[in-house]
Amino acid sequence: MRDQAEALRLKMMNSQRQVARSIAVISGKGGVGKSNFTANFSYALVAKGKKVLIVDMDIGMGNIHILFGATPTYHLKDYLTEQQQLQKVVTPIDENLAFIAGGSGLENVVEWSGQMFDRLIEAFSLLQMEYDVILFDMGAGATKSSIDLILAMDEVILIATPEPTSITDAYSMIKFICLQGANKTIHIVSNRVHKEQDGRDSVARLQLAIRKFLFMETSILGFLPDDIHVRNAVIAQVPFVKLYPNAKVSKRMMAITDTFLHNNKPRTTIESSGFIDKIKGVFLKGRV
Ligand SMILES: Nc1ncnc2c1ncn2[C@@H]1O[C@H](COP(=O)(O)OP(=O)(O)OP(=O)(O)O)[C@@H](O)[C@H]1O
Ligand SMILES: [Mg+2]
Hints:
Helix content is 49%, strand content 17%. By secondary structure, it is an alpha/beta fold. The protein has one domain: Rossmann fold (3-Layer(aba) Sandwich), CATH 3.40.50. An eight-stranded mixed sheet has the order 3-4-2-5-1-6-7-8, sandwiched between helices. Strand 3 (90-94) and strand 4 (97-100) form a beta hairpin. Helix 1 (2-15) runs parallel beside helix 6 (114-130), helix 2 packs across helix 12 (248-262) and helix 6 (114-130) runs antiparallel to helix 13 (274-284). The longest helix has 19 residues, at 196-214. Mean pLDDT is 86; it is low at 266-272. Bound molecules: adenosine-5'-triphosphate and magnesium ion. The site of magnesium ion (MG) has 5 residues, from helix 2. Adenosine-5'-triphosphate (ATP) binds next to helix 2, strand 7 and helix 10.
């Protein structure tokens, strides 16, 4: 496995290919639409020519596969515990879209063995060279394990609804990340917006609070309306951007995707890839 990773790394360095953008999709309060956003955003990115991998990090409660009507045979744990090869736990959805199901039994990162971390690092060393974007659908709330993983990502997409409770929880989440000394690109998406102006006002207030009290800049990717097509697409187990391309929510998702792609910070190259080093740092912390 290590040889395989090294060979691919060398090949990629020679071809000057850039590594995947690693992105954690997070929220303060749960149930605000992270998984639906992840599934549809990934589909929209593929429609724009990107190769995307989703990692369902809502371990134990993961539902990404349901949104795609897919049934994973194996889970991340099967690979980490050496029961399966990496290819087996990557479930294809479309030509340029795949996911890794979290499964259960991995909830507590501090209980992982050294070999499991080695395998995780090997896996992402390979995967980040194969994909343009790796999206991590995080579970609700900020557990120790999920914060550690979020800290390893290059970027964060924060989902919040215009409700005051969602906005204050979103702010607390960013404050928590900020207090860990993390410096990362933060994008904000407002979801389930009833009135466009409310959506704009709520994210503008959130952005201002983060700037004023945490001294951090954020980028607003846009908003998604509260739309019955979302629920219908969940029932049909097909992403709404695919099933209802003309629905307002799908058009907004395409616009968000354009903003995200144009908002591209300088891509990390293989030589200076931060993600793998940060993952190593996070997992080695407190283990020696
Ligand atoms: N824009 C929207 N319009 C209407 N309904 C929506 C919208 N976005 C999400 N929903 C609904 O909200 C519910 C929660 O969505 P989802 O499962 O994506 O949230 P989540 O943040 O991943 O939740 P959890 O924190 O439990 O992982 C779903 O039933 C979904 O259909
Ligand atoms: Mg979810």
